[in-house]
Specification:
The chain is α/β, with parallel strands linked by helices and 383 residues long. The chain has 14 helices and 12 strands. Helix content is 42%, strand content 14%.
Length: 383
């Protein structure tokens, strides 16, 4: 059965850059954009052009070098924003305008001091105006996660008629539970006229640690685009992690969903983004963390040495990592010591291994990790 394609909308250069202290200059943005294009993302959100001259310049320059991906510029539902974004995208092979407005009761009342009728008017006006210049228009209903479904459906219907090609349903505050977010997408799929003519997009934040789960729930229920960032970086607690959603869909083929991402580039681009932004990837981060394929427990190490799949559902090479790591600690067993010793040229008999193990434990209780430099000294003690 042919799989449905889930498009990957990468917002590392826009939402990802909203992390305090992680500002990128145009040079760094171009390097990352080029790698995102090679990675196979469908859309690169290059910035918020009206926000600063630097952001405008970055979107212009990214548009010039990207060969395959669409290049997207963010705007508010404001004509001036749209004019500036259109100008910034003039060199893009496949330009997209990403415009929208808040739709939740909280946003309408406190942010805009407005009402539902006026919000719909502004949404329709923004999409209609942007459509005059660029065909591919994505509309975001900010805080859709906390927006009443009936009103959200009405807004979606109106902007589709105005020319929107993609509907972004953001869980802006990371509030939704996966079941709740999935039901919201399903409701729109079943209750919005002409919904079959557009793509529904998931844009989830990680305030409760549910961004990835919510995005997967969204595509299971009919969405066909996920908005995400490398390493899950982004505003507050971050965004949906690109590498996580890509590998979840690969590991669950029965969902009949996949992306165009070349997963072997995931670890290298993770490192690039981390170094460029000065944002360390937490060691236990799924897929790309330093410990994602590292084993220090003796029971786990024995299983991985015998057959990698015993404790690893992903081949490290599939995401650009050379191999699994067997880390020697006080929790390690004889199998790990024999394995690591053999790697540096020592074939130990069972009797020798027992003696080495006893010496190993003495040192391992004093150090966090035993290295290849430590092993010869331990082995020579029993010779």
């Amino acid at each position: 059965m042919q799989k449905d394609q889930v498009k990957i909308f990468d917002t590392t250069l826009r939402d990802g850059e909203q992390v305090p202290g992680c500002k990128l200059d145009t040079k760094n943005k171009l390097i990352i954009a080029e790698r995102l294009d090679e990675l196979g993302v469908d859309v690169i959100e290059a910035g918020f052009p009206i926000s600063s001259p630097g952001d405008f310049k970055s979107v212009v320059e990214v548009s010039k070098i990207v060969k395959k991906s669409s290049v997207c510029g963010l705007t508010r539902a404001v004509k001036k924003d749209i004019d500036v974004a259109v100008d910034s995208l003039k060199f893009a092979k496949k330009p997209r305008i990403h415009t929208g407005i808040g739709t939740s009761e909280s946003h309408i009342k406190y942010k805009f001091n407005s009402n539902k009728e006026k919000i719909i008017e502004r949404a329709v006006a923004a999409v209609s105006y942007a459509k005059k210049f660029i065909n591919d228009i994505e509309f975001y209903a900010e805080d859709a996660g906390r927006t009443d479904n009936d009103f959200l459906a009405l807004v979606c219907e109106k902007v589709i008629k105005a020319g929107a090609t993609v509907l972004n349903i953001p869980d802006t505050t990371g509030y939704c539970l996966p079941e709740e977010y999935g039901k919201k997408i399903k409701y729109l799929m079943e209750n919005v006229n002409l919904i079959e003519n557009v793509t529904i997009s998931c844009h989830c934040h990680n305030d409760l640690g549910l961004a990835t789960a919510n995005s997967i729930s969204g595509v299971i229920n009919g969405a066909r685009q996920i908005e995400c960032t490398i390493n899950g970086i982004g505003e507050r607690a971050g965004n949906t992690s690109l590498e996580e959603v890509v590998m979840i869909l690969r590991q669950h083929p029965y969902l009949n969903l996949d992306t165009n991402i070349n997963s072997k580039y995931l670890y290298p681009i993770s490192q690039l983004v981390s170094e460029s932004m000065g944002m360390i990837v937490q060691p236990n981060k799924a897929i790309v963390g330093a410990n994602a394929f590292a084993h220090s427990s003796g029971i786990h190490q024995d299983g991985v040495i015998k057959k990698r799949e015993t404790y690893e559902i992903i081949d490290p090479k599939d995401v650009g990592v050379d191999k699994s790591s067997i880390i020697l600690t006080a929790r390690s067993g004889r199998a790990a010591i024999a394995y690591r010793s053999k790697n540096i040229g020592y074939e130990l008999t069972k009797l020798e291994l027992d003696k080495v193990y006893n010496e190993f434990l003495k040192l391992a209780d004093q150090k966090k990790e035993i290295t290849d430099e430590d092993l010869p000294h331990i082995i020579n003690k029993i010779k």
